[in-house]
Amino acid sequence: MTTTPSTTAGTLADPDTPFAVVDVHKALRNIDRLAAKADQLGVTLRPHVKTAKSLDVAALMHGAAPNPVTVSTLAEAEAFADGGYTDISYAVGIDPHKLPRVLALLRRGVTLRVLLDSAEQAAFVAEASRRAGIGIPAQIEIDCDGHRGGLKTDDPALLDIGHTLHDAGCLDGVLTHAGESYFAYSAEERRLAAENERDTAVTAAGKLRAAGLPVATVSVGSTPTAHAAEGLTGVTELRAGNYVFFDLVMAGLGVCRIDDLALSVVVTVIGHRPEYGWIVTDGGWMAMSRDRGTGAQPQDQGYGLVTDLAGRPIPGLVMSAASQEHGTITARDGATLPDLPIGTRLRILPNHACATAAQHRGYHVIDSSRTGTDAPAVQAVWNRVSGW
Amino acid sequence: MTTTPSTTAGTLADPDTPFAVVDVHKALRNIDRLAAKADQLGVTLRPHVKTAKSLDVAALMHGAAPNPVTVSTLAEAEAFADGGYTDISYAVGIDPHKLPRVLALLRRGVTLRVLLDSAEQAAFVAEASRRAGIGIPAQIEIDCDGHRGGLKTDDPALLDIGHTLHDAGCLDGVLTHAGESYFAYSAEERRLAAENERDTAVTAAGKLRAAGLPVATVSVGSTPTAHAAEGLTGVTELRAGNYVFFDLVMAGLGVCRIDDLALSVVVTVIGHRPEYGWIVTDGGWMAMSRDRGTGAQPQDQGYGLVTDLAGRPIPGLVMSAASQEHGTITARDGATLPDLPIGTRLRILPNHACATAAQHRGYHVIDSSRTGTDAPAVQAVWNRVSGW
């Protein structure tokens, strides 16, 4: 994992705005927190790299030796394979059309697991494996909370799929994701969601095993449940992605503090409309994404909260509106709009780190433990993987 | 303008999903429609390339000879300058930090106009011009509807700014944008918005001229008002961007028909949850963007409407939910969910073409006038400009 040194920028005051910033101090703190939790629970952590999509960020998690990762696209799988990763789970239901790229990675010596929840997909995977003479490792997606895909544990298709996969040398295990935990606002709700996620995965694995089918992997995880789980008996691995950066949605749930947010976007003040109470910036939805995740939370944070360039929150300021290349900052809760002249740089903390990061080609990297200055030094510029 | 021939794909059935598709037949029809309108109104059309961000799409507008364009980022300005464009307006209020890149383009022989609405910005532009010995052409942004930036026509700063710019050899003219026309649901409202946009720009130009200040450019435009304007006396140029692709927001306003939408995203069915009435695809918000523009319209279209791979609408189907790499399609209005097996390809028509296009690195190009097949042939793959 190589860190690309910064070639363009001395400090966050230098590059043209908008651009994305990663604070490695906070990212490492977030990484250490979940690593300690996984250690305590006695499970392997398999980070989902869909949030940062960066070999450099993954190196923060893994150090020198590439370790298990989860990906959301084959483009990520291929980029991480190029970076030396050999243990990759592709956690989106497999489109049979994509199996040639899966087989190409397997032929390179990468253990790439696919996910499926239907007899049709299992038949495609089994057939492709037989033709290629390579068992494509496959996990059966289990639905624990009605959030998205997966089979219920009592679905009779579970065993049929298990047999189809096993007969073709493909059966790896089961995977579930407590997506509804993104709406769990109390620690107790998240604890129960984690318990349910575990129970569901372990029940499904038990049903397969009771039918004589070997289950190697029992995979669970989401950022809220990973932090809330109190016991993961029977589970072999824990997945989470957002936790490396966190965001306002996670802070709104109580999974992290605002101070833990490691991703932000630097913008510049380009206008004022005092008659409306607006400060206009050059960071619109192109820079922040259209994600309004906190809009469904008790405290709506608009398009994001505002800090100064050093990362100190400016109380009462919110990015309340966005067009393509314009952001509107307003004051709320009786706060006074500060005097922020044209050219002032600010940082916006996003609703949803996965969506905001995706609007950028890379990250300017700072380390907030090393600087007390108003314009943090840029340590490096890291690239992101994009596309599919 | 070179068209990159397709090297990867025979038809829309071939590339891995999700990917963006441009139908040149519909794009050309949309382009011809507004070109005819501009001719009829007797104004220059200066297309905003922020929607497609593609030299190839711009070539559809301009043919062999590059013509006036509007851009939303300096990255677009630089890419279009590289493509031979020499008449470019950068229609986002200028950040003084970006003036060195503006000057670099001017030194290359590109007439790049900047936009501003404050005495502070005018002073920065005048000072940079004097230092460089190059008058940076600048337009004064005028607010016609309280949508975003700009000066009201009665703001005393208008003349001060005009003098500052003129004294430095920078004053080019005035620009206004009827952003509130995106909420004008009747032809009459849009006609009135266009009239107000024109009146406001012409009034501002008149005030400057009455003070002895020369005004070359009087620029107006938005996709809804450009199509609704009945007379543009006093206006020199018309801007619009979205019109090349159109989208569900524009169709919801009545500016176009669903059949005019030239941009879509090809996705593949990867799952079924009959108990919830869901078809799951591999196109989530990463492919569609998080834009929910129709959510504020009388007919909410979710994350998009669904067609088959040939582009024929599938009545009653809507993409009702999205996660990062998953889309959920449901039936509404009593429609029956059709049988769409795993691997079936569909196309999703987006809420907001600018936002959806931005999620992709390029476009697979088809021509719906040339094919009657179920899987349209891919004529080319066109790149997009990204970043800032």
Automatic annotation (TrEMBL), chains A, B:
Name of the protein this chain belongs to: DSD1 family PLP-dependent enzyme
> The organism's lineage?
Bacteria, Bacillati, Actinomycetota, Actinomycetes, Kitasatosporales
Highest rank taxon of the organism: Bacteria
Q: Does the keyword RNA-binding apply?
A: no
Task: Supply the InterPro entries for this chain.
Answer: Ala_racemase_N (IPR001608), D-amino_acid_metab_enzyme (IPR051466), D-ser_dehydrat-like_dom (IPR026956), D-ser_dehydrat-like_sf (IPR042208), PLP-binding_barrel (IPR029066)
> Pfam family example for this protein?
Ala_racemase_N
Q: Does the keyword Lyase apply?
A: yes
Alphabetized CDD domains for the sequence:
PLPDE_III_DSD_D-TA_like_1 (cd06812)
Q: Which organism is it from?
A: Streptomyces asiaticus subsp. ignotus
Q: Which family does it belong to?
A: Belongs to the DSD1 family.
What keyword terms does UniProt attach to this protein?
Lyase
What PANTHER family does its record include? D-SERINE DEHYDRATASE, ZGC:162816-RELATED
Q: What region holds the D-serine dehydratase-like domain?
A: 262-367
